[in-house]
Queue: 2 jobs
Job 1
Amino acid sequence: EVQLVESGGGLVQPGGSLRLSCAASGFTFSNYEMNWVRQAPGRGLEWVAHISRSGSTVHFADSVKGRVTVSRDNAENSLYLQMSGLSADDTAIYYCVRDPTSHGSPQQFDYWGQGTLVAVSS
Amino acid sequence: LPVLTQPPSASALLGASIKLTCTLSSDHSTYTIEWYRQRPGRSPQYIMRVKSDGSYKKGDGIPDRFVGFSSGADRYLTISNLQSDDEAVYHCGESHTIGGQVGYVFGTGTEVTVL
């Protein structure tokens, strides 16, 4: 069974930093591209970041570019999102999402984690 | 950026059918989209991918009650024999490349109520 379990969310002050983690199991992690998608409270979905299978290619939404990095450890079956310069606009549930395609860009999101909440407030 | 337009809400009777619409912006009218379902308090779930030619491919475990099709810039998801479990927000999404920049955009979602 495919499982994606996020962690690392919490309350952070404006301007602060946070590192989210996602532990993957039930599939060969290194064979899949991965993404982060977020959802602000009561709002729609917003794609945040994409990473290729090897981690050599990454893409980011304009809203987070320059403030966010995405990485992965295929040996540990883990995905990460490092965020800095956080503002209230970054308050959201952050989902770790699998992409079954191999296009080198976000294409399709077939499995989602349960999400981790990031709240930015003073 | 491309825009995906979805009606904010839709409703139908238990056991009836419902048709959800996702309209692509005119310059992306031939694009493929994906449908996702998000039940209250839950993570989104992948339903299917719908191409401009009307073909579609469902995700794991999605029942035959879910069918996709296309007409012009519109992508549809029809759900027949509506169940209470189908109450959810249905999101559509599209992958794009603009000026060498890749991305993925979602519509605002349609909240489905089963009466």
Job 2
Amino acid sequence: DTGVSQDPRHKITKRGQNVTFRCDPISEHNRLYWYRQTLGQGPEFLTYFQNEAQLEKSRLLSDRFSAERPKGSFSTLEIQRTEQGDSAMYLCASSSPQGSGELFFGEGSRLTVL
Amino acid sequence: EDQVTQSPEALRLQEGESSSLNCSYTVSGLRGLFWYRQDPGKGPEFLFTLYSAGEEKEKERLKATLTKKESFLHITAPKPEDSATYLCAVRMDTGRRALTFGSGTRLQVQP
């Protein structure tokens, strides 16, 4: 399968714990995006990387959130001191510089904070 | 602030009953309007990109159209497997790469 891969698919944690999600984009895609989606809502933009550079960050990305993309390949999204309001689906997407701008999404990582 | 509004929030159709979903946007300088399909518990699946007013794209029972202020996703003779949430997203002419999404229309097609 050559699509966007996310891990883990599901994560249940207790409030106050740290969690990390990983995203492996489509191999030839140099652009990578993180979104958050809650029930009944559309995806909300969190951050964007072009290669290893983090070029855009949403105001939703509080100081408890950090994202990295070392070497411009896979990316990680870490949430520190989780809160119940962090419960959501975290979606990763990638896009090609030769494409028409469309994003290709992974299956998401669902976080439940108890 | 740029906004994307989708209507209706939910739509229930009988199999074979054609209808349209609406996506209206208030953005300055549209660089693209995107339609996605999302099944429960899955990531959004890309369907279409539209760039200019008057443009149309088709895929099986789906046809997307674009005007200066809105887009329609027409579903002709839908089948139960077309049941999903349909999301609309826009990219603005501001140098931002990220897409801004609407809240989606939840479509249920009953046999």
